[in-house]
Amino acid sequence: MKLFLIGANGQIGNQVLEQIKANEKHSIKAMVRKQEQLEKYQDSGVDAVLADLEGSVADLAKAMEGSDAVIFTAGSGGNTGDDKTLLIDLDGAVKAMEAAEQSGVNRFVMVSAMQAHNRENWHKDLRTYYVAKHYADRMLQNSKLTYTIVRPGLLLNEPGTGKVSIAENLGQGSIPREDVAKLVIKALDNEKTYYRSFDLISGEQSIEQAIESL
Amino acid sequence: MKLFLIGANGQIGNQVLEQIKANEKHSIKAMVRKQEQLEKYQDSGVDAVLADLEGSVADLAKAMEGSDAVIFTAGSGGNTGDDKTLLIDLDGAVKAMEAAEQSGVNRFVMVSAMQAHNRENWHKDLRTYYVAKHYADRMLQNSKLTYTIVRPGLLLNEPGTGKVSIAENLGQGSIPREDVAKLVIKALDNEKTYYRSFDLISGEQSIEQAIESL
């Protein structure tokens, strides 16, 4: 598949990019916001394109034309204000969905946040972030796209174990970013994950087994 | 109709309340957040109930049980932060929709903001407000409710003229809050407004004519 990665500069996005380099099934194009990022990727042999989640849907659609799937791992990050959370994590995400629909990219894998679908489980200090993720996810579920919504628990920078637990609702837990990226890539062309949303933490099953059990 | 008013303490909400007092077709219940507000309304003979848009959907559903229509005029206001905009104008609004669905209140009239549906026309300084209104409106359009979305232009405190212009898209314009409230009330049981969203500014037509021309 020809993948279109939004959020390549983020930590999960970077993991996806690194893993795809070693994967013969897929090719990837990274969307970046700045000319210097574009050059950095191109210099290292990574296909990249300039576009901005704060820009127009038309520009985003043009950037992703010809792709088979969008992987959305972007986030405004913890150091920006609530305005950026709204504009990137919610409106930016939905613009990416609209762009995918417009440009005929039918597959969309969203990296969300654990329990984003259950208001009662939102961390009190992160409510604006959860509101943004919650509605981005619901807009994706209401879209025409073949979606998968992956909701990882606390993200770790440890090496991945390849062992996970996935389900509609899981208790608190954590997972290495490397394993989130692994699952996202395995999910891409696995029909078991189509139109599904699930929490994801480290667990006992291999990623393949976990997906089969969905 | 038995109306359930969310945002009674706001300026448009207060206009709706005052106008309904003189309207024999409808009765109204005002949702308020504080005990002192409850007492103020009850002392003046207005039916009121305590509930909070930051509370649970179940509590909101209980508060609106037995009503025929929800009028949503609430807003976090210009003096609160972007977090409240998200939690009230977006998540609070959608919780009210879910509560209406749960409690069998089928009719929902939303007061939105002019051009909230067109990103390119959002005021740059008010983008977070427009993102919140935009997605609240889209969630309502995706709901099972018989909705009407009224998107007024610049709101004035002048007396109403009763003359308006409504259309899917209008250029810039203003309108007295009194006329917004009048239109909302006339729209309630007028099928021409069902499943419709429109901009609203002062104009040349009576409210009845404008609604008929939809």
| N to C succession of SSEs of chain A | EHEHEHEHEHEEEEHEEH
Strand order of the largest sheet of chain A: 3-2-1-4-5-6-10-8-11
Low-confidence stretches of chain A: none
What is the chains' assembly state?
homodimer
Biggest sheet of chain A: strands, sense, closure? Answer: 9 strands, mixed
- Total helices of chain A: the number is 7
Structural Rg of chain A: 16 Å
Q: Indicate the overall shape of chain A.
A: globular
Number of strands of chain A: 11
| CATH architecture title of chain A | 3-Layer(aba) Sandwich
Task: Tell me the domain tally of chain A.
Answer: 1
CATH class of chain A: Alpha Beta
Structural class of chain A: alpha/beta
The portion of residues assigned to helices of chain A is 25-40%
CATH superfamily of chain A: NAD(P)-binding Rossmann-like Domain
| DSSP strand content of chain A | 15-25%
Largest interface: A-B, 23 and 23 residues
> CATH fold name of chain A, please?
Rossmann fold
Distance between the termini of chain A: 23 Å
**Overall pLDDT of chain A:** 95
Write a structural description.
The structure is a homodimer of 214-residue chains. The first copy, chain A, is α/β, with parallel strands linked by helices and 214 residues long. The first copy, chain A, has a single domain (2-212), classed as Rossmann fold (3-Layer(aba) Sandwich), CATH 3.40.50.720. In chain A, 38% of the residues lie in helices and 24% in strands. The first copy, chain A, has a nine-stranded mixed sheet, sandwiched between helices. In chain A, strands 7-9 form a two-stranded parallel sheet. In chain A, β2, α2 (35-43) and β3 form a beta-alpha-beta unit. In chain A, α3 (57-64) packs across α4 (82-103). The longest helix of chain A has 22 residues, at 82-103. Chain A is globular. Chains A and B meet through α4 and α5 of A and α4 and α5 of B.
